[in-house]
Amino acid sequence: MAKKIISLLILFTVHCSLFTLFATASEVKETILQNGLKILTLENHKAPVVTFQIWYKVGSRNEPVGKTGVSHLLEHMMFKGTKKYGPQQFSKTVQKNGGNDNAFTSKDYTAYFQNFASDRIDISLELESDRMVNLLVEPKEVLSERNVVAEERRMRYEDDPQSAVHEELMAAAFKAHPYRWPVIGWMADIQSINRDDLYNYYRTYYAPNNATIVVVGDFDTDKLLKKIGGSFGTIPKGTAPSENNLVEPSQRGERRVVVKKEAQLPYIAMAYHVPNFSEGSWGKDPDSYPLEVLSVILSGGKSSRLYQSLVYKKQIALYAGGDYEGISKDPHLFYFYASVATGKKVEEVESALYEEIEKLKNEPVTEREIEKAKNQLEASFVMSQDSVFYQGMLLGKYETVGDWRLKDKYLEGIRKVTKDDLQRVVKKYFTEDNRTVGILIPLPPKGL
User: pLDDT value at position 23?
Assistant: First the structure.
C-alpha cells in the first residue's frame, strides 16, 4: 500500500494566496450521524478536486500482545475485496475514474483516502461504505498478504541496520506502553496472524462510531452530507472498543542497546521521553511547543546546530539531526541521531551530541535562532496546506489523536515560545536518567 504520498501532494496542490491557505475552525463543519460516525467537511473551490479520507481510531497501540502488526496487515486486506468488489477492484475502480488512492497505518490510527475530480466523489462513498462492513478476509488472501508483509519487514527493517537500531531503541525506551513495538509488527507475530485474528479485529475497530470521514475540496456541504448519510447512515453502530489507557512509568536511569549488523559505518540514536502536542493543548503541559521549536534549531537544515557542529566544523558525522514526535495519542519521544564519519569513533560522536545539549542548558539561544525556527515552522505549516489533500490530513490526524480544533492552536503556541521556555524543557527532559541510547556496531560482510 506504500505508494509515495508526496506525489499525491503534487497532483492535488491548489495554489491559493497566503491568506487563504489554511482553514480555521469556523470554516470546518462537524457532523455526527446517529450511528456515531463523525464527518468533517471543508469546502475549497479553488480547483475542481476533492479528497475523501476515512480515519479509523486504531493503530499498533491497540494491538494485543502476540499479534503485533495486525493493524498494518488488516490495512493490506482492506484492498482484497468484498462480495461486490473483488480483489484489487477497489484501486482499479478509482484509477479508471481518474483518481488515486492509498492507505497508511501508524501507532495511533489507520487511514484510507481517494483523490478525485470533484464530480467523482460518489465513488468514494460507494467503495468505502461497502468495505466498512462487507470485507471478505479470505484465508488464501490472508496467507498471501502475510507473506508480502513479512518480506516488507525483512527489507525495511531487518536488512536495514539503522532501522534495526531504531526498532531496538523504541523497544528499550518504552517498557509498558505499546509504542514499544513496531507498526509493522514483530516477525513471529506477523507469521502467527490468522484469518480469525484479522476478521475479529476488523469487526471490533472498523465501525462507524470509531471512524471519522474527512472531505476537503470542491463540493456543496449540504448536498454531500445527505449523500454520506445515505451511504453510511444505515451501517450499525459497533460496540465501543475498550480504550487502551496504559501509562508508561517514569524512566529511572539510562538504558542502552547495541545492535551488531553488517554495515559500513557506526550509527547512534538517542531518545528522551517528552510530552505530546495533545497534552499541551489541553493545558496539562505546555512544553510541546518549545520542543517543536527546539527540533528545528537542532536539525532544521544545514544551518542547524547539530549539522554545523558535528558535520561541518568537527567533521565527525556524515549527518546529524533530531526529531520530535509531537502529534500522538500518548506522550512520545524526542530523538537525536548521527551517522559516524569514516575513521571516527561512535564515542566521539556521542560526546559531541551531549555537548550540544549542555550548551542549550547553559546558554540561551539567540534571538535570531528562535525567530528563524519559528518562521520555518510557521511557513511549513501554512504552505503545506496549499493542498486539499494535506488540509484533510491535518484535520484527520488531529481529530484522531485528540480533537481537530487543536490544529488552530498550533501557530499561537509556537509564536509564544521564549528562550526561557527552551532552556526549561532541555533541563527538564534531556537528562541522563530519561535517556535511551542505541548504537550500531558494524560487522564485516559474511565470508570476509
Answer: 55
Give me the sheet containing 255-262, strands edge to edge.
Answer: 255-262, 435-443, 267-274, 332-340, 317-324
Q: Kindly report the CA angle at 114 between 1 and 190, in degrees rounded to 5?
A: 25
pLDDT, tens digit (0-9, with 9 covering 90-100), for 396-435: 999 999 899 989 889 999 999 999 999 999 999 999 999 9
- Over the stretch 340-367, which tens digit does the pLDDT of each residue have? 999 999 999 999 999 999 999 999 999 9
Name which residue leads in pLDDT, 21 or 133: 133
* Partner residues linked to 40 by β-bridges: 30, 214
Alpha-carbon dihedral of residues 339, 340, 346, 348, nearest 10 degrees?
A: -120
Residue 123 vs residue 284, higher pLDDT = 123
Q: How many CB atoms are closer than 10 A to CB 6?
A: 8
The whole-chain average pLDDT of the chain stands at 91
* pLDDT of 12 strictly over 50: no
Distance between CA 316 and CA 349 in Å, rounded?
6
* Most confident region among 22-31, 190-199, 283-292 by mean pLDDT: 190-199
The set of cell numbers assigned to 218 is 470542491
Q: How far is CA 162 from the centre of its chain?
A: 19
Site of grid cell 528562550: 419
Point out the catalytic residue in the list 27, 30, 63, 75. Answer: 75
Q: Give which of 297, 415, 433, 299 is closest to 360, Cα–Cα.
A: 297
d(CA 110, CA 432): 35
* Coil, helix or strand at residue 41: strand
**For residue 9, pLDDT beyond 50:** no
- What's the predicted TM-score (pTM) here? 0.91
The rounded distance, in Å, linking the Cα atoms of 427 and 281 is 21
Q: Is 141 among the catalytic positions? A: no
Q: In this structure, what C-alpha cell is assigned to residue 143?
A: 496467507
The Cα–Cα gap between 240 and 210 comes to 7
Helix (H), strand (E) at residue 437: strand 435-443
Nearest to 395 by CA among 405, 387, 386, 410: 405
Q: Over the range 117-126, which residues count as b (16 or more CB within 10 Å of their CB) and which as e?
A: ebebbebbbe
Task: Compute φ and ψ for 104, nearest 5 degrees.
Answer: -155, 150
Q: Which residues pair with 101 in a beta bridge?
A: 114
- Burial 318-343, CB ≥16 within 10 A → b, else e: eebbbebbbbbbbbbbbbbbbbbbee
Query: CA angle at residue 289 from 283 to 293, to 5 degrees?
Result: 175
